[in-house]
């Protein structure tokens, strides 16, 4: 489906002038607007389920939901802290300095069974809000589809049978959250952080958008909660090279290398052994590769010199066994470097034509072991350069064969 902002532009082109509430405008003109958004003969509720939260009632409900989350978490922590330290409070005047934070269960259970809010002089619960709009219904879960909770912070809680399909959790921070029957299909987690998320059965992330997010511990990514891959951004070559050199030079970062958000999707502490479906195979391989690569970079100062050199070479030449393009440009760089050397010291070679393209052509023949052609070394230094280029050519060929094998392994 088109993004919310894209659809908003369509509304503006068809009479919406921002003087009225966007939700009111859409539902009044829905019969005219839907074919423009979804195409002819298509009936879906994705946008309706999002825009309902922009109505006056939806805005009030969203604010109440945020307060409800905060209240439930604080109440649980306070209750459990009191229970764990009650005897100490009763018998020790200095109990505040000896209080224990090793609580048995400090997770707040959030299922919206006791949720309500006030609007226009009456009390509303979540179901009453949902049934106020002409949209599709769901059963078995609380309907939070399409809600905008961007920037929210949720921690130490247990989310029970909630549906956040198509919701907005951009820039949110979720930590130590247990999911029971809670789904996030198609949810946007752009630039968000998810840390120590315990995903039970029927808690899905299918089609979620983790662009530039930190997925730092979803336990466990498996066939039970991921039957379709989610979206993510791959780490860039330049970032990988930069972080490798930073680790080699002992330059410290504020966070562990590879766990920053906002650049690409960062993965850490995600078990993937239970992801066995063909549709999620490529995702599983990438997550494993990313986590292994970042662990290696963080541990580089503690590894042997020969292993450091080997790892650095694989990063610079192939983006640690993932990119044909990087290998191609690496080979081109070597070829151009030797071309430049041949042109800088022509007295070490016997040749008549020294223009760039001719020297580059001859260098390519040497690099690919197809012959010396126009470059004939007449000194020891010239011979050493030619031999070195041939060796580098064979190294690049070996890298290509190994990279090809890794790519086949990833695919199948």
Topology:
Layout: H1 4-12, H2 22-28, H3 30-38, H4 46-51, H5 56-91, E1 108-110, E2 117-119, E3 122-124, H6 126-130, E4 142-143, E5 153-160, E6 162-163, E7 173-180, E8 193-199, E9 214-219, H7 237-248, E10 266-267, H8 281-298, H9 305-318, H10 324-344, E11 349-350, H11 356-367, E12 376-377, H12 380-411
Parallel strand pairs: 1-5, 4-6, 5-7, 7-8, 8-9, 9-10
Antiparallel strand pairs: 2-3, 11-12
Helix pairs in contact: 7-9, 10-11, 10-12
Report on this model:
The chain has 412 residues and is of the alpha/beta class. It has four domains: 42 residues, no CATH class; 167 residues, E3 ubiquitin-protein ligase SopA (Pectate Lyase C-like), CATH 2.160.20.80; 81 residues, no CATH class; 87 residues, Helix Hairpins (Orthogonal Bundle). The chain is built from twelve helices and twelve strands. It starts with a helix and ends with a helix. The mean pLDDT is 88.
Sheet/helix structural class: alpha/beta
Please give the count of helices: 12
Instruction: From the alpha carbons, calculate the radius of gyration and give it in angstroms.
Output: 30 Å
Average residue-wise pLDDT: 88
Could you say what the CATH architecture of the largest domain is?
3 Solenoid
**Unreliable spans:** none
- Beta-strand fraction estimate: 5-15%
How many separate domains? 4
Placed side by side, the strands forming the largest sheet appear as: 1-5-7-8-9-10
Q: Would you list the SSEs in sequence order as H and E?
A: HHHHHEEEHEEEEEEHEHHHEHEH
Let me know the number of strands.
Answer: 12
State the shape.
Answer: elongated
* CATH secondary-structure class of the largest domain: Mainly Beta
Specify the oligomeric state.
single chain
Tell me about the largest β-sheet.
6 strands, parallel
Helix content range:
40-55%
- The CATH homologous superfamily name of the largest domain equals E3 ubiquitin-protein ligase SopA
């Amino acid at each position: 489906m088109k993004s919310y902002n894209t659809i908003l532009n369509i509304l503006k082109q068809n009479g919406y002038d921002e003087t009225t509430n966007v939700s009111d405008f859409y539902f009044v003109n829905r019969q005219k607007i839907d074919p423009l958004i979804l195409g002819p003969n298509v009936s879906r509720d994705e946008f309706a389920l999002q825009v309902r939260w922009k109505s006056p009632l939806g805005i009030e409900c969203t604010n109440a939901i945020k307060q409800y989350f905060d209240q439930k978490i604080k109440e649980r922590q306070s209750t459990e802290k009191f229970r764990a330290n009650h005897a100490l409070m009763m018998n020790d005047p200095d109990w505040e300095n000896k209080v224990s934070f090793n609580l048995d269960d400090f997770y707040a259970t959030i299922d919206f069974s006791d949720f309500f809010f006030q609007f226009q002089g009456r009390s509303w619960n979540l179901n009453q809000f949902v049934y106020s709009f002409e949209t599709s219904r769901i059963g078995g879960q609380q309907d939070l589809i399409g809600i905008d909770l961007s920037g929210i912070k949720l921690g130490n809680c247990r989310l029970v049978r909630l549906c956040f399909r198509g919701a907005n959790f951009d820039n949110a921070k979720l930590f130590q959250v247990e999911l029971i029957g809670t789904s996030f299909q198609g949810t946007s987690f752009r630039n968000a952080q998810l840390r120590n998320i315990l995903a039970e059965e029927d808690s899905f992330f299918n089609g979620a958008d983790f662009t530039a997010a930190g997925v730092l511990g979803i336990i466990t990514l498996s066939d039970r909660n991921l039957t379709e891959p989610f979206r993510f951004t791959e780490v860039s070559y330049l970032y990988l090279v930069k972080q490798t050199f930073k680790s080699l030079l002992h330059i410290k970062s504020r966070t562990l290398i590879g766990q920053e958000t906002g650049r690409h999707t960062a993965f850490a502490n995600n078990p993937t052994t239970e992801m066995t479906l063909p549709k999620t195979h490529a995702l599983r391989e990438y997550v494993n590769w990313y986590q292994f690569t970042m662990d290696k970079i963080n541990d580089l100062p503690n590894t042997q010199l020969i292993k450091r050199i080997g790892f650095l070479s694989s990063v610079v030449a192939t983006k640690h066994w993932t990119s044909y393009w990087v290998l191609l440009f690496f080979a081109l760089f070597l070829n151009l470097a030797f071309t430049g050397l041949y042109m800088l010291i022509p007295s070490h070679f016997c040749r008549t034509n020294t223009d760039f393209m001719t020297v580059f052509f001859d260098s390519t023949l040497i690099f690919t072991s197809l012959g010396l052609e126009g470059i004939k070394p007449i000194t020891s230094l010239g011979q050493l350069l030619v031999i070195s280029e041939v060796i580098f050519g064979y190294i690049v060929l070996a890298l290509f064969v190994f990279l090809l094998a890794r790519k086949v392994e990833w695919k199948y």
